[in-house]
Structures are given as structure tokens and as C-alpha cells.
Design brief:
InterPro entries: SHOCT (IPR018649)
Radius of gyration: 28 Å
Number of domains: 2
Helix content: 55-70%
Number of strands: 0
Distance between the termini: 68 Å
Number of helices: 3
Largest sheet: none
Protein name: Putative membrane protein
Strand content: under 5%
Pfam family, one: SHOCT
Order of helices and strands: HHH
Keywords: Membrane, Transmembrane, Transmembrane helix
Shape: rod-shaped
Length: 86
């Protein structure tokens, strides 16, 4: 009765191996498209550049506020925009 399935009932033996290989391939493809943190070198360099430019902009904004060139309301608005774009 079980001999009709071939290999004594183990005809689905390669299925777990194929499933694991498909999962590994899927993981590698997803990682190459950047679905996992730290996978893309371009993403790691952009925030550093954004932080340096935003911190420089915040320094300039603080100096302008300290000199009296802008009022407190304008300082708050602009600093909030810069902090949101970090």
C-alpha cells in the first residue's frame, strides 16, 4: 500500500530542503533591496551628512537668534523644521 508512493512514503523529502533554500534566497534578495536595517551603505552615509548639515544650520540659526536678527517665534519655527528633517 505505501510502496505506491515511491521511496516508501518519502516522496516529499526534498520539500523542506527546497523551502529552506527559497527562504534563504528570499532573505538575500530582501536584504539587497534594503528591507533590513544596516544593509545598504548609502543609507548609513546619508544620515551622517544630514546630521552635520542640520547641526551646522542649527548653529547658524542660534547665532542669528543670539544677535537679534530673528525673533523667538521665527527661531522656534525654523529649529523645529530642521529637527524634523534630521
Amino acid at each position: 500500500m505505501f510502496h505506491q508512493a515511491g521511496m516508501h512514503g518519502f516522496h516529499f523529502f526534498p520539500f523542506p530542503i527546497v523551502l529552506i533554500l527559497l527562504l534563504i534566497i528570499g532573505f538575500l534578495i530582501a536584504r539587497s533591496y534594503g528591507y533590513f536595517a544596516g544593509s545598504s551603505p548609502a543609507k548609513t552615509t546619508e544620515p551622517e551628512q544630514a546630521k552635520s548639515s542640520n547641526s551646522e544650520a542649527l548653529d547658524i540659526l542660534s547665532r542669528r537668534f543670539a544677535k537679534g536678527e530673528i525673533d523667538e517665534e521665527e527661531y522656534q519655527k525654523r529649529s523645529q523644521v530642521l529637527r524634523l528633517n534630521l
